[in-house]
Amino acid sequence: MKSEFRAALADGATSEKGADMADFCKQCSEELFGEDFKELAGLGDGAKLEPGNGWEALCEGCGLIIVNEAGECIKPYCPKHGEEVSA
């Protein structure tokens, strides 16, 4: 069921209201669906970023986060993936 849902998203499915469906960071995508669909990857030019910086994005698993070029959540205080949570 989940893979069929993800396949529909990959084909450009939209919600009933016509907006794009949920996006997930790399970690949430792998945790929930077993693979990274790269929904939050490539939001900008990674060559222009200083190390540790990224783009603000909305992950349906984490909430408002910062992602790097690969779509990984790098927000230090992310409730699910942040370094401060595991410390």
Parts with pLDDT < 50 across at least 5 consecutive residues = 1-6, 13-18
Helix content: 10-25%
Number of domains: 1
* Strands side by side in the biggest sheet: 1-2
Enumerate how many helices there are, as a single number. 3
Beta fraction: 5-15%
Number of strands: 2
Question: What does this protein structure show overall?
Answer:
The protein has helices spanning 2-10, 26-33, 83-86; strands at residues 55-59, 63-67. The chain has 3 helices and 2 strands. The chain starts with a helix and ends with a helix. 24% of the residues lie in helices and 11% in strands. The chain has a two-stranded antiparallel ribbon with strand order 1-2. It has one domain (2-86). With 87 residues, the chain is α+β, with helices and mostly antiparallel strands. Strand 1 (55-59) and strand 2 (63-67) form a beta hairpin. Residues 1-6 and 13-18 have low confidence and may be disordered.
